[in-house]
Amino acid sequence: MAARSTSFRLGDEARQRLHERAEREGISATALLERLIIEGVDTLEHAGIVYRGPGHDRRAALAGGPDVWEIVARLQELEGSEEQRIAVLATETERHPRQLRAALEFAARHPTEIQERIARNERAIAESRAAVAQRRALLA
After folding, report:
1. Res 2 pLDDT > 80
2. pLDDT of 26-46, one tens digit each?
3. What angle in degrees, to the nearest 10, is found between the helix axes of 97-109 and 82-93?
4. Using the 8-state DSSP alphabet, how is residue 26 labeled?
5. What's the rounded Cα separation, in Å, for the pair 12 and 132?
6. CB-based contact 21:55 (threshold 8 Å)
7. Dihedral sign computed on CA atoms, order 72, 78, 83, 89
8. Total tally of structural domains belonging to the chain
9. Which domain holds residue 115?
């Protein structure tokens, strides 16, 4: 999507805090403002979802709980209907099914972001397993 110029008037305190935070993160005020708007709208639309992580690696998560991608990855591993899977995961994680449904709803609205995160984790696991196999081979 192409960027378009938009004008906002910010109060002095908001502008100062935005610039200070952007400077601490090493990014432009515009980049930080864009991230804050996207994350803010997401959290308004998806109750119980928060963002965490450093500026270069932000990810959606349940407030006080696991990342959304982790929930989706586990639900994909389970068998049964959606509600059966949610019930199993609710028992495993001691999370209310409502929270898991909120994460699943977020993922449905952001499938590319979630699937990319799952794929990244699967690649890391595969690389780790390959490294273990190589170490074992060296010591064999």
Report:
1. no
2. 999 999 999 999 999 999 999
3. 120
4. T
5. 55
6. no
7. negative
8. 1
9. 66-139
